[in-house]
Amino acid sequence: MVKSLLYVILFPQLIVFGTVNRIQKAMEKKEYDKAYELIAKGYEKEPNNPGISYYHAKLFFDRDFSAYNIDTARVAIERSLETYENASAEIKDDLVADGVYHDQIKLLSEKIRDRTFQNTLNDLTIENILKYQRNYPQSVYEDILTFKKDSIEYDAAKSMQSQTALIDFISDHPTSVFRPKADSLLDLMRWQVLESSGTLKDYYSYLDRYPYSRHRKKVEEYILKVSTASHSTENYTSFISLSSVPELKKRAADVLFFLASDASIAVHPLKDSITTAKELQELLLFPVVSENRIGFFDQSGNQQISPLFTDIAPLSKCTLSTDSWVFVETPSEGQIVSKNGSPILHSLTAYEDLSKGIGLVKQEDSWYLYHKSGFKIIDSPVQTAEVLSAKWIKVKQNEKWGLVSYLGLQIAESIYDDIFREGSFWIFEKDDLFAVYTEALILDEIEQRGLSLEFKFDDIELVNENALIGFRDERECLLDSTLHFLIPWGEYEIYPEASGWYLRAEQGYRLYNQSEQDLMDKYFPYLESNDGWLAIKTDLDWMLLPRKGSLLPSREYDSIKLLNDHAALAIKGEEKHLMFNTGNQVSLKDEKITTLSQPHYVSVVDVDETFIYNERGEVAISGRFEKTNFLNDSLVKVQVRGKQGLMHTNGNWILNPVFDSIDEKDGLVLTLIDGKIGCYDPVINELIETGYQARLVRFGQNYLAKKEGKFGIIDYASQEVLSFSYDEVMQWNDTTYLVKDGQQYWVIDENEDPVYEPFESMRVIVENDLHSVYRFIKNGRYGLISNRFGELLKPEFTDIFNIGTEASPLFFSDQHLDKAGFHVVSYVDQKGKLILSKAYTREEFDQILCDD
């Protein structure tokens, strides 16, 4: 019957009125079956009657009706609305007469729509939502159902935990309210994948692909730490140009400031502030006390830190403060302040300066690592730390060592017994084994997510800056600076030589040198090697292979002895030959051969005649000598009949053999006859006759000599420049001398007239390119005098010492007024200019007195 009613609705005939009123009464009496029959008959008579369709919809909308069906009601009410819109005025009047109004039809339509919506919500599936949207394309519930539909699809995509599912959802729902959530979740999933396994290259690629990621700051934080692990200026400036996070740009520029301040100023986002910081950094500060509180002044006499503190670091009392951080104490706490007094850190108990940019601070009972731009490098406390090679920080935690970068990147966990540098190698020690790394390899593995240390070695031995021998059990290997094998693992001993390597194993000696590849796989009973020669013993003979010069390889020798890089002794039967790699040879019999202190020469002694050969195999010196000895690379001391003379390596005599003794020191040759001393000056080729009591010393263009117990100065002709009247003589400057006569020191001119009043004793306390400054004593008081600027301070002080540097000294000059109980301290620069003068009580003076 339902099908027949739908058929009538969908395929109407002409309208014939008369049954609506009876259907209405049946509905009112809840005679649903009768109403149903009347509706069916009505459709047969009046298929386009809006009233019949209306009651048809109303019947199937009524839950009390046994055939209740909301879809049938929807179809019927849609038909009622459609036929009503197409009905004539006469039909509409008849409907009114039958009690059916247009508003009633619309109201029922809305009720059916609303109930269908509620049913859809009660059984919320994508299929039901789509069905509703098809049936009610302009529904007031469209937005709600779209939201519900998107929610279901978003939850489905989310539950799949798949980037692809989220990408598809975003593509299919470009305007959905769940689009931002999907974007955010997709962004998070991408970040999580990157964080768990991404390399530095992946992080850069991530920024290129997702420049507006919500996780950009975290990505940049990682890039900042890893890309700057080398602590190079270029990497910091590169990051600053890349970064879009102001906080990170500033952090990178701050760290760069302590590495290369000018480079930092060029790229720093706060140029004015960092320029001021550089000016402060260059200041050298000294402590001053006012009213029992300590402050700091600079070398120009300007107060930089107000006197607010009860104590300061001991080092700040003894030297000018070059550190960017100043440790001070108040009655309640220790603090770090900048050089203008601005507070940086509070509640400290101690501080250690590790480097220009790194400091250790103690808070309560723990030490923490800080960068001097103000941030904590790592959150966990350390036992101690040190900066290695101005690059990485070695930290000790739980009695084990690790490595971190200046920005807190953990390069190596704190699990090692030691970490140290050997040449260009980084060595990690753990459980008595060693892992060897290079800086380049460490940086590469950091970029790939971390170190993978292999502890291959029982021990190591540095051969040179770029080569290292590794030991494991009975095996050895040789590594170059890139950790490539120069010599692979093997059971042999490796012997390094300037010209190559050779190995000693049970089978014999094996040469390991790229230039002798034909020998590399052969073992020999013995070999010797140096820069000039290779001598190899075979089972049959000895071979001699020159490594330089024109001599050809030769063999069939009974023995070979390498004398130096240029000469070798070869023996064959009764024949002996002194061979030079220039090709020259000297036949020998019973001569005695010795190497000399100058490595290019060889001595051959035949009974009573000596021949000294140079590196070319030429006789440099020959004669009947009892002894020969090189004084330097060109002067040879020879002895003839018990007397000593001097010859040049060109074979010429310089001093005839008439001296009891000859030796050389500081470029002058001492000569001795009958206990009297003279000298030969090879620079000007002049001999100063013997007649003095002590070795002559070069004194500018003249010589310091001693005669009759007193010192004086003579020229090369033994003429007096300064009389022999003094216990000590020193050069003061170009025109004056510092001399000691008895218990007094004098500064005298070339005429031996005094320039200053005499003083009792003196000591150099500053020597720099400008001058030398001496602290002297007169009448028990200290003064200062410069060999360039004269008297800087009169002898009026109880003590004077330098609290500055050698290059930029500042003299702390104390006048102790014992009876008054005061100290008057004058701070004076190296030219004698008074920077500041302060009167201190005894207690105030003790606050800044250097214990050293």
What percent of residues adopt helix (DSSP H or I)?
Answer: 25-40%
The chain-level structural class is alpha+beta
Strand order, sheet with most strands = 4-5-6-7
Number of helices: 20
Please name the defining characteristics of this protein.
852 residues, alpha+beta
Structure explained in plain terms:
- The protein has 852 residues and is of the alpha+beta class.
- A hairpin with a 2-residue loop joins strand 46 (697-699) and strand 47.
- Helix 4 (50-61) packs antiparallel against helix 5 (70-86) and helix 5 (70-86) packs antiparallel against helix 7.
- The protein is elongated.
- Residues 1-17 have low confidence and may be disordered.
